[in-house]
Amino acid sequence: MIILGINAYHGDSSACIVKDGELIAAAEEERFRRIKHWAGFPTEAIKYCLNEANVAIEDLDYIAINHNPKANLSRKIIFALRKRPSFSLIKQRLENYSNIGNIKKTFCHEFGIDEDSLKAPIVNIEHHLAHMASAFFVSPFDSAAILSIDGFGDFVSTMTGEGKGTKISVFEKVYYPHSLGLFYTAITQFLGFKKYGDEYKVMGLAALGKPKYLNIMEKIVKIKQNGMFELNLDYFIHYTEGVSMSWDGIEPKLSDVFSKRLIEALGPPRRYEEPITEHHADIAASLQAMYEKAFFHILNYLYERTKIKNLCLAGGCALNSVANGKIFDNTPFEEVYIQPAANDAGGSLGAAYYLYHQILGKQRNFVMDKAYWGPDFSEAEISEKLKVKSEELNNCKIEKIDNEDELCKKVAKYIADGKVVGWFQGRMEWGPRALGNRSILVDPRRAEMKDVLNARIKRREPFRPFAPSILLEAVGEYFEKDYPDPFMIKVYPIKEEKRKIIPAVTHVDGTGRLQAVSKEENPLYWRLIKEFEKLAGVPVVLNTSFNENEPIVCTPDEALDCFLRTKMDVLVLGNFIISKIYR
Question: What is d(CA 56, CA 58) in angstroms, rounded to the nearest whole number?
């Protein structure tokens, strides 16, 4: 049985393909379109998935989409009758519903086939059910408490439940207009970060401040006794005036959602070009503190209801790695699973697996313990790209090293010598994090490397931290929590005596967003870090995404272009090492 899962006409559009319960491929459309968080119909991601599975559209048994316009319909009607939303807001919603409703026609148009040739039925899965399925059904747990939490999807922002075997039961829902994700977005916009998905920047800024305004945040978010929450809607405009959104074929955009009441409480909002002050950092810290208060309130209530020690998280808020790293200290949960594309991209995965297990009743036979589900490229393909770009590579030395031990030793030496190394290997990562296949690597012992990366390549805000990739067996030696995370979705305190040893990956508050690298799941990356440890005495490298204010590179072409236009020193493409010659 072959199921194609898609997230369409929403941010982080994506596709995946599942064959007899096994994931074959998964990728975000942004990697092919080269537009961050691309929203629309994921044509290129679908093409990749079909090609990887060696099937045609006509071979599909089902197509699952993580959006169901009929879900929570009565709630939508009651809201519309009570609030009488603006015509523009209604028009946007109807256009989006129309796109979802015409998926079959779009498929046939994009792939040049007759509608009669598309035999696979299209199954709509409610947004948060897809999120929950994306976490539980690919987790190692037979039973788990489940929380899905984000901005909004199908008129819901939060859903709790329980998974057992091949079934998910839903407990509670938080409906529009109440949303912790939207609360986080509102303050992110207030702080001058207006781009879709900028919330992670504010999470990093929070470490520089103190929660001085928590009392104001507590007026905005009200904790409820049933384990849920509600917003004080006086601080928002999304439910009265509406907000403009764009989801079709471009980078998603969302207009401001906060009201004048927030300005009265916190002062004038920051414009993007203005300096970031202590006041702004304190607002960010207060936002994070309030989010965590509500988050742990939900989780503790969920645990009391289920009494299950295993937890699965999904939804955009599940990428709040700072909060995730505190789950063990603030709740009774002992095991936590978050798949690497916990955001809306993961909805394609969840739609496919919800259909396979919950609806079709098929048994589970797959655990997602790695993130490498995207395209890879052969030695011949890479060699051909190097020939095509030979003129641009005139000032570079190109070596081909077939022995992997020798390759890792040589690259580890470059890193130890302070070089900035692009590392392009195997299949591209699924999710927003580079996890050792599309990464830029430097020496974490050198505190100056943060500034070097920003000056030469990343050009991002100086308060944002860089992450450590660490050998799995060394996690407990360097971090206060000895609970591995292969997907870089948890932040833990770094042991005090180790912070001076790896300053480039130690945030201002003494924490690090770790990636635990296992020999089994990524043997080549593990071997590289091991060789670096032999040279430097440290089983850690600084790992940041291979890009320059763009989606993470997907192809050798994109890696070469990024290498040539930035001040990267070395590029490792498969078993080719390209190093710049400085004269």
Answer: 5
